[in-house]
Amino acid sequence: MADTQSKFFWYELMTSDQDAAIDFYRKVVGWDADQVVSTPDGGRYTILAAGERPIGGVLQIGEEMRSGGARPGWFGYVHVADTDLAARRIAEAGGTVHMAPTDIPDTGRFAMVADPGGVPFYVMTPTPRAGDPPPPDDPTALGLVSWRELYAGDGQAASFLFYSGQFGWETLHEMDMGPMGTYRIFGRGDEQMGGMMDKPAQMPAPAWNFYVNVDSVDSAVERIKAGGGQVTMGPMEVPTGSWIVQCVDPQGAAFALTSLQR
Questions:
Q1: Residue 21: pLDDT above 60?
Q2: How confident is the model at residue 1 (pLDDT cuts 50, 70, 90)?
Q3: In the prediction, which pLDDT does 133 show?
Q4: Is residue 106 part of a domain?
């Protein structure tokens, strides 16, 4: 696996209508969804791919998950060397382990956790694969996640200290957003990975949001509306010159898109 250690490397949609969600994202983003694997409870886990590059999966929210409070949403997986150690360190740092480390046959070991501000994510140690690792992804390739944005529940400064301590992320740049506070761009070395900001008051809960590359945001907005989704912010140009739009899919999961073309 190409340099994914301590980074988000997999993205999972938990949804109330798996087939409808897959159809929506096929049309909006252009993902392929032809590979399906069985879950331990007999359900389906559909792999999403940008061309030949798998980027994540779609999982149906079952009755037990729903009764436990699960709602449609996107979740990111951070690649760690040791899931058990990572889960233990997260708990020691004030986070929460929602699902203890568990093996997925022929795939890896993972755990669902949350940061001290209550934002859920996964840590995972993938099963080693034979052969040479693939080349690094082109960050502008269509269908890939190119930006990860945290709306922090305990303030972006405190959240950054947590994630930096767990994964070695660094502050690369900070921007003053006036009444909205500071926007912290984080990464490692020269690589920008995403941003962190205080949770806006209008957001119902702190969360990670993931930005997917598309051909143009204006064209994508038309596809979103035609498919029954909603645009909650944008299109808006950001300082890098890219255009972004934040959205909600028909089942209620928040996501975002970005493009060099409006």
A1: yes
A2: very low
A3: 56
A4: yes
Structural domain for 221, as ranges? 145-259
Distance CA 235, CA 246 (A): 8
Buried b (16+ CB within 10 A) or exposed e, 109-140: bbbbbbbbbebbbbbbbbeeeeeeeeeebeee
* Tens digits of residue pLDDT in 59-102: 999 887 888 788 999 999 999 999 999 999 999 999 999 999 99
Assess whether 50 and 105 both reside in one domain: yes
> From its phi and psi, is residue 106 left (phi > 0), alpha (psi between -120 and 50) or beta?
left
> Is 150:208 a contact under the CB 8 Å cutoff?
yes
Name the domain boundary from 126, 161, 179. 126
Name the pairing type of β-strands 243-248 and 108-114: unpaired
Q: 76, 122 in Cβ contact below 8 A?
A: yes
Q: 194, 139 in Cβ contact below 8 A?
A: no
Q: How many CB atoms lie within 10 A of CB 249?
A: 24
